[in-house]
Write a structure and sequence with these properties.
The complex is a heterodimer. Helices cover about 35% and strands about 25% of the residues of chain A. Chain A is an alpha/beta fold. Chain A is globular. Chain B is an all-alpha fold. Chain B is about 75% helix and about 0% strand. Classes of the chains: A alpha/beta, B mainly alpha. Chains A and B meet through α10 and α11 of A and α1, α8, α9 and α14 of B.
Chain lengths: ~525, ~350
């Protein structure tokens, strides 16, 4: 009989804004298994894990470890019980070394100082033991994303964790790095560690995990052995209806050049170019995908095109007119929409209502304001109702605070706002990151529909399925330059793309220049 | 009950509790320090209602607070923390005084022009920290507080050297023309037309903040400046605009107070309405419509403490303790949070 390592029983969590994140959830994990926790975003996975790690207090329910009921009030308590969490966003100090980051808070002393040689030795030993060796003296800022993640896992292991929680660990990794991570995790499993793997990528869950717990709208939809359930059954339980996982689309009807970028260079304050002499053209009626591991210049490229940040060289022409830094209003009025990467800080004003967020970019619209500059309450509320209906935004009505919505619904508000301004070009930066399957499908369909109406779409994404499924052409960025440009993305596979993303391969400059127009 | 009405119920209860705790605390302090606590407590709480004149005092006292609190509300709504209301109010007094003394105009027009000048002076004062921040990112908190002192001494200098009554032994300006005064409203009290102006300003400010394009921009910028930049609003310009309008409101408030209550300038220091206005604005939860109520409450405490100081052995500064306690408790987000949470849980799981 398998031995239960962890059991969370009847967990309920109600947030102060009235959102029921968890309702009577039962979550049971056996010792030595990799257990997937899957569900749409806003389903309550992260909340459940935060409760387990002591970061949130449950409204009701009990937690037992090895059959003994425990109370977890803080991450400290959780670590003492052998529970460790690797967060989606790394919690590391870039200027410190690997060893220093690991011993932060648990420093071994030698007299008045810290015993660095001992710490480095320990880090190397543990790294070797679990096949995750990192140079203890390397500075964290010089590590790759995959190595940083290893470091996070090592941090938890050295603190004595027997149960590891990994919150969407593959979101930031290349295919190769993901494979490496999986090998490491499987090795940990053979050593008797228990791993909770939060993810909604079915292929990864299937490759790695033994069992899966599915959560939908804060309720558990059951525990399944992965041998006994099909992908369709899983996605059905996750979203409660059949999801078409790929968006069907017809061939692009490519029109005139809408956006033309020449010699674009954006430098860091120190002078290191983050975007290095880029040139490409985006045509009406096409979706141009931009692939790349995060931090290879995509954000700087997007900020330059949307006028949010300066660029120091080159030109960006939209419809023949130059795009200038800080002229955001003009840029928007000329027909550029922007779905930002970080929706909570850039995409919404969290203290305002859904309606107010929907009209935030329309303060120049005559249809929503009368000639004295007064808000036209009737028109605004009917506009908001229409948007909420059209985009199936889940909320009581437009007057509720946007902060009470789930991630996917917030993203739908952003999408609704940007699309309702009838853009000719939409810059979508990670449009479906952290968004549930249902909303993801909706957003992707909208982008394709937009393209079919003759709009140009610049799609920056780290989701390869999204890039393959939507792009008419695909650019790959590495180190601020284009490493490749594919005019037919359907002809390449993930492994090939991964090599370009990692900078292992590079197309000929002339070839890139030709196909990027 | 939906989440919105739960929030309203809890917020109202919290406000009532804050007021109650503040009053209880005052009573306790009085009991501890006073030889005749009965007299002190009753004159504090009941004194303000004991005669028509005293009720009038409450209303008069609320007028300047309404103006400064509206100014504070506008500034805070834009996400700025300029403390300029104090200085803008004081320099507004000077503006009204200059017009009242030096510009002979017919009644009706005279106070109007005086108030306009007061507003312009206030706006100019508020523009200084706003523009310093716009241009050089200097913290508006620091510059506005420093500027308040500059304004205080500048105004006193102007009165002393250019508008002083030569006959007077203590600091007093020349008398303003009668045509400039704001007429009284209620015989037997000093309640003046300024009360109506203050109420109109409250409604207008509410309308501006919640129903106008410019007010909407102020709220957007105040809630998330990065977001407002992203949707194409020139956030720095909106911040400056909000502070200039706020300065004008506070300046007009200074003019109203001066023309309604005084015939000569007699202040030897800035009167502190700008600071009290912060407490009033926070108590009103930055809602212009609630500002008059919260100003009346603070004015009631001020009048009560004055009466108590005259009729017992407790000094009037006790009212500052109350204001401090109120501000602390308003800032305490956790207060009643458990109850709110319980109601929401019941509601959500029902």
């Amino acid at each position: 009989m398998e031995h239960s390592a962890l059991r969370m029983e009847n967990i309920t969590k109600v947030y102060p804004n009235g959102v029921v994140a968890n309702r009577d959830i039962v979550f049971d994990v056996n010792r030595g298994e990799i257990h997937a926790l899957s569900g749409e975003n806003g389903a309550g996975k992260t909340t459940l894990m935060k409760i387990l790690f002591g970061e949130e207090k449950p409204t009701g329910g009990t937690i037992s470890i090895d059959g003994k009921e425990v109370r977890i009030h803080s991450p400290q308590d959780a670590l003492e019980l052998g529970i460790g969490m690797v967060h989606q966003h790394f919690m590391l100090v870039p200027s410190l070394t690997v060893a220093e980051n690991i011993i932060l808070g648990i420093e071994m002393r030698k007299g008045l100082g810290i015993d660095y040689p001992k710490a480095e030795q320990l880090v190397a030993e543990v790294g070797n033991k679990y096949h995750m060796y990192l140079d203890p003296k390397a500075k964290v800022k010089d590590l790759s994303v995959g190595q940083k993640q290893k470091l996070e896992i090592l941090k938890v292991l050295i603190r004595g964790a027997k149960i590891l929680i990994l919150d969407e660990p593959t979101a930031v990794l290349t295919p190769q790095e993901t494979e490496e991570l999986f090998a490491e995790l499987k090795h940990l499993r053979t050593q008797g560690f228990t791993i909770i793997f939060i993810s909604h990528k079915l292929a990864e869950v299937r490759e790695l995990c033994d069992r899966i717990t599915i959560i939908r709208r804060g309720e558990s939809k059951g525990v399944f052995s992965l041998d006994g359930i099909t992908d369709e059954e899983i996605s059905q339980r996750m979203v409660g209806r059949d999801v078409q996982l790929s968006v069907t689309r017809t061939a692009a009807k490519r029109g005139d050049v809408l956006l033309s970028v020449e010699h674009l260079t954006v430098s860091e304050e120190g002078g290191k170019p983050l975007v290095d002499n880029l040139a490409f053209a985006l045509h009406a009626g096409e979706i141009l995908g931009v692939a790349g591991v995060e931090g290879n210049g995509q954000s700087q490229l997007v900020d330059a095109i949307t006028g949010l940040a300066p660029y120091d060289n080159g030109s960006i022409l939209f419809n023949g007119k130059p795009i200038r830094h800080n002229h955001v209003k003009d840029i928007r009025e000329s027909g550029v929409g922007h779905i930002p990467e970080d929706r909570m800080t850039l995409g919404i004003a969290s203290g305002l209502s859904v309606t107010e967020n929907l009209i935030a970019d329309k303060t120049g619209w005559d249809s929503l304001f009368n000639r004295f500059g007064m808000l036209d309450a009737n028109r605004i509320s009917s506009f908001s109702e229409e948007m909420i209906k059209e985009h199936t935004i889940l909320c009581q009505d437009g007057s509720v605070s946007i902060a009470s919505l789930s991630g996917g619904n917030i993203q739908k508000v952003v999408l609704a706002r940007e699309l309702s301004s009838e853009p000719k070009l939409i810059v979508a930066n990670q449009p479906t990151r952290g968004v549930d399957v249902g909303a993801t499908e909706f957003i992707r369909k909208q982008l394709v529909a937009l393209r079919d109406k003759g709009c140009a779409v610049l799609l920056v994404s780290s989701d390869l399925n999204e890039l393959f499924g939507l792009s008419d052409r695909l650019l790959v960025m590495y180190g601020g330059k284009f490493a490749a440009c594919f005019t037919d993305p359907s002809l390449i596979d993930e492994q090939t793309l991964g090599r370009y993303m990692l900078g292992l391969e590079r197309q000929d400059d002339d070839e890139i220049a030709r196909s990027a127009r | 009950m939906n989440t919105k009405s739960i929030n309203r119920l809890v917020d109202a209860t919290k406000l009532a509790m804050i007021v109650l705790v503040a009053c209880l605390l005052v009573s306790v302090i009085i009991l501890l320090v006073s030889e005749q606590p009965g007299v002190a407590i009753s004159s504090f709480f009941l004194g303000p209602f004991s005669s028509l004149r005293r009720i009038g005092n409450i209303l008069e006292g609320a007028i300047p607070l309404i103006f400064t609190a509206l100014a504070v509300t506008l500034i805070f709504r834009a996400g700025q923390f300029s403390m300029i209301s104090e200085g803008a109010f004081f320099i507004g007094i000077m503006g009204a005084m200059i017009v009242g003394i030096a510009m002979p105009l017919p009644p009706g027009l005279h106070p109007l022009v005086a108030l306009l000048v007061a507003g312009v002076f206030g706006a100019c004062a508020a523009a200084v920290p706003a523009l310093l921040k716009l241009k050089w990112q200097v913290s508006e908190v620091v510059t506005s507080i420093m500027l308040n002192y500059v304004i205080q001494f500048f105004v006193i200098y102007m009165v002393n050297y250019h508008f002083r009554e030569p006959e007077a032994s203590s600091l007093a300006s020349l008398k303003i023309a009668e045509s400039a005064s704001l007429p009284g409203l209620v015989p037997g009290t000093r309640v003046h037309l300024g009360l109506i102006i203050a109420l109109l300003f409250s409604v207008a400010t509410w309308f501006f903040v919640f129903r106008m394009r410019a007010g909407f921009k102020i709220r957007l910028v105040g809630d998330n400046a990065q977001f407002s930049h992203y949707v194409g609003i020139k956030a720095p310009a909106v911040m400056v605009m909000a502070q200039i309008i706020a300065g004008a409101v506070a300046g007009i408030g200074g003019g109203v107070e001066f023309l309604g209550m005084y015939t000569r300038f007699k202040w030897t220091a800035s009167p502190g309405y700008g600071w009290a206005g912060i407490a009033v604005a926070l108590l009103a939860r930055r809602n212009p419509m609630l500002v008059p109520l919260s100003a009346l409450f603070i004015a009631y405490l001020n009048v009560g403490s004055g009466i108590m100081a005259r009729s017992s052995d407790v000094s009037s500064e006790i009212v500052l303790i109350i204001q401090g306690v109120i501000m602390l408790m308003i800032a305490a987000d956790a207060l009643l949070q458990n109850w709110r949470q319980r109601l929401i849980v019941q509601n959500a799981t029902a």
